[in-house]
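Intended use. Records like the one below are meant for learning the mapping from a protein sequence to its folded structure. Do not use them to infer anything beyond what is encoded.
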Amino acid sequence: MAKIYSTIDDRLKAFIEGQRMFFVATAPSTTDGHINLSPKGIEALRVTGDQEVAYLDFIGSGVETIAHIRENGRIVVMLCAFEGPPNIIRLHGRGAVVEPQDPDFERLTSIFGPNSERRGVRAIVRVEVERISDSCGYGVPLYDYKGQRSQLSAWADHRSDDELKDYQRQKNAKSLDGLPGLRWPSAGE
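Structure written out for the chain above:
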């Protein structure tokens, strides 16, 4: 039976920050737009308050989550236990995108430790959590964790800052549905 929580307490925080993978889902306001569901890893999710989480958003071939958040703010973060006791946590809320030129970017990166220093961080997504729920997770299989993949970091490390910026200008300026994505790669030009 699902349970609803009013805040992220210490037990929920330990579970959330202990997961090595999470999923983020968003959708545009229109009924004919593309719904997006993205897996995330690199241990990039942090609890930043009793009703707030944030995660590092790394360079990718699309920008759906950011574009949807800019359009309507709706987001859900889902975490499930792939080892240990079965559990699923869903965090429904309102997202905000913090890009490198934004005032809060430096302050927020400090909570991520060494992960925030990785090349390829294009933004931080903050979520003001409006609904916190859990469910049993009995249908989630058990998996053994072998480690984070190194390809994203290696890909970014083999490109200059200008090459990374050009890639994001080409791939991250607009969503599949033409919604605005990242601002910073084209700022000041």
